[in-house]
Design a protein that fits this description.
With 595 residues, this protein is of the alpha+beta class. The protein is built from twelve helices and 28 strands.
Length: 595
């Protein structure tokens, strides 16, 4: 809370007296010598506000609590300003990780920082806060918390003579270790290397015997990720069980805590020091937080970013961790949180780029396997196109000769998207394109269905239309729950079939049968995936089969490439920019007869 020096709220209706109101010397001065008299648990009032009215004196108010409420008198505000432009609930300054943030809490004329209206704004030293009136008060934000803390630590570490600090060069060596640890923030080492070095620095700074790094798991519980001893050796994760009470206290207070075990210390004295070699006497822990967003909602509990984990150390020496060591450890915890968050971001970015690279390779392979530039057939012409909604898709089409008398025409659609669907698509392509003369297509599809059902862990199935077209126009086809191809004949459009069937890979007992249709010269078959007919507009209405039939009616003589483009343009125009939710595939085959 922000208080006067006597503990009450600062009421500033005008200002009596002359000149600036006095401020504690240890805060106002930038000299290290004047910081040495601060209590160790003091924040030094390094953050304060200079309140300025036109033609009046200034007054300085210390910020020592959060949230710090600003408003008119009478609503439990910590800084009360009597001005008609200021609401009773005007603004608040909250402590966020790494600094302070100003929030508009409902001032009717708005809250401004350096002349710019803000809802939330991270404050920097020298920022001027105003409340929508040139004649009203202005509040200048002053913060030297960072420099005061460093100066305070530096001045006190030089003369540190407690049981821990006097070892290995005293406090100055600890400062050096602290600076080395913060340099990890800018390193490009692998995450595990960063975490190990960070924990080693924490152990070295505090002279602890062991250190644990705990991380938040998916359930929100703290789990041990890394255990190191004072020699930098990794220990098994289950070899040390941290004291839950110590962790709970650190999480509750959201800062580093030092806890001693008086019972163990007493037992150590009675045993002549034997217990000290078996059990730790002193414990220190600090939580690790990420950085909050300026746009994040702020509350009394949410003054930091997300909890990332905690560092926990123990020592067999009684009273091993002094208050100053706790402050240094807490400062390291701030940097450690940033290190951990930064390393995680780098690791996720590396994984994302690797995945993009792998997906790019998969897409290139998949596109290379799709037919390009169909060969010339004496009795038909062909055109096909495929557009995946993501990098790799689950649609597949092909036209290839089985013999001089028969040509295979097929289209398939694997459920789902991504690499899993793409792999199954490639498997289907290999199984079907490898068919030779004399093989029974029904038997081949039956075997594919059995294989996929027996390997249900694959988690995908496929709809399919497979056909063999003879030179005389006789079409032998097998349907497996795929949308019926459309037949264009004499300006009319009809579906090849209307009854349903089973997909491959879903039901092991499914039966597949062949049917026959006689094509006439000039007939056009349009095969498509459900990404065409199930494409949705912004109102979630589907393109549908009737709309596709209407689009194709009378297009018997339209070149297949133009017919294909007409379908894609029609779907695109219908969707009006709505996101594509499924792969789109179109395959057009026109039977010309035999000369």
């Amino acid at each position: 809370m922000v208080e006067r020096m006597d503990g009450g709220p600062a009421r500033l209706p005008g200002f009596g007296g002359r000149g600036r109101q006095p401020f504690p010397e240890c805060v106002a001065s930038d000299k290290i010598a004047k910081l040495t008299n601060m209590p160790e648990n003091s924040s030094a009032h390094a953050t304060h506000l200079e309140v300025v009215f036109p033609d009046r004196t200034e007054q300085t108010v210390a910020v020592t609590r959060t949230p710090f409420l600003i408003g008119r008198q009478g609503d439990a505000n910590h800084l009360e300003l009597e001005d008609q432009h200021i609401s009773s609930r005007c603004a608040a300054i909250v402590t966020a990780r790494g600094g302070h943030r100003l929030e508009d809490r409902g001032n009717r004329t708005g809250v401004f920082v350096n002349g710019q209206k803000v809802a939330k704004k991270t404050l920097h030293d020298g920022d001027t806060i105003s409340f929508g009136s040139d004649q009203g008060p202005k509040v200048i934000f002053r913060s030297t918390a960072g420099s005061a803390t460093v100066a305070h630590m530096l001045s006190r570490m030089g003369s540190l003579h407690d049981g821990v600090g006097s070892h290995a060069g005293g406090g100055l060596s600890k400062l050096n270790l602290l600076l080395e640890a913060t340099a990890l923030l800018h390193s490009h080492l692998p995450l595990n290397s960063v975490l190990s070095a960070m924990l080693d620095h924490a152990i070295a700074i505090t002279k602890a015997d062991r250190g644990l790094l705990l991380e938040i798991d998916a359930s929100g519980a703290l789990k041990v990720r890394l255990v190191r001893d004072s020699n930098g050796v990794n220990l098994p994760a289950d070899s040390v069980t941290p004291r839950q009470a110590v962790l709970d206290q650190a999480l509750k207070e959201q800062t580093g805590v030092v806890v001693g075990d008086p019972e163990l210390a007493a037992a150590d004295q009675r045993s002549g020091g034997k217990v000290a070699h078996e059990h730790p006497h002193s414990f220190i822990a600090t939580p690790l937080y990420g950085l909050p967003s300026d746009e994040a909602d702020e509350s009394a509990e949410a003054q930091r970013g997300d909890l990332l984990g905690a560092i926990y150390l123990d020592s067999r020496h009684p009273a091993a961790f002094s208050e100053l060591v706790r402050q240094i450890f807490d400062a390291l915890g701030v940097e450690a949180g940033s290190i951990l968050e930064n390393a995680r971001h780098m690791e996720r970015e590396h994984e994302r780029r690797l995945m993009e690279h792998e997906m790019g390779l998969a897409r290139a392979i998949q596109q290379a396997l799709l037919p390009r530039g169909f060969r010339d057939y004496p009795h038909l012409t062909v055109s096909g196109v495929n557009h995946s909604c993501i990098a790799v898709g689950g649609d597949y089409f092909d036209v290839f000769p089985i013999s001089e008398e028969q040509t295979a025409v097929l289209i398939a659609d694997v459920s789902g998207h991504g690499l899993g669907a793409a792999l199954l698509t490639t498997m289907l392509q290999g199984a079907l394109s490898g068919m030779t003369l004399g093989e029974d297509p029904v038997r081949v599809i039956y075997q594919i269905n059995q294989f996929l059902c027996e390997h249900s862990e694959v988690g995908h199935y496929a709809t399919m239309f497979f056909s063999l077209l003879d030179l005389d126009g006789k079409l032998h086809y097998i349907k497996a729950a795929h949308p019926s191809p459309l037949l264009l004949r004499n300006g009319k459009v009809t579906e090849l079939y209307t009854e349903g069937s089973f997909p491959v890979g879903l039901i092991q007992e499914a039966n597949f049968v062949a049917a026959t249709e006689q094509l006439e010269p000039g007939d056009t078959l349009v095969l498509f995936s459900d990404g065409v007919t199930e494409a949705e507009d912004p109102d979630e209405e589907q393109f549908g089969v009737p709309r596709l039939c209407e689009l194709l009616a009378g297009q018997d003589n339209t070149p297949l490439e133009e017919l294909q483009k007409m379908i894609l343009d029609g779907v695109d125009s219908f969707c009006r920019g709505a996101a594509q939710l499924d792969d789109i595939t179109v395959l057009a085959v026109r039977y010309s007869g035999v000369a």
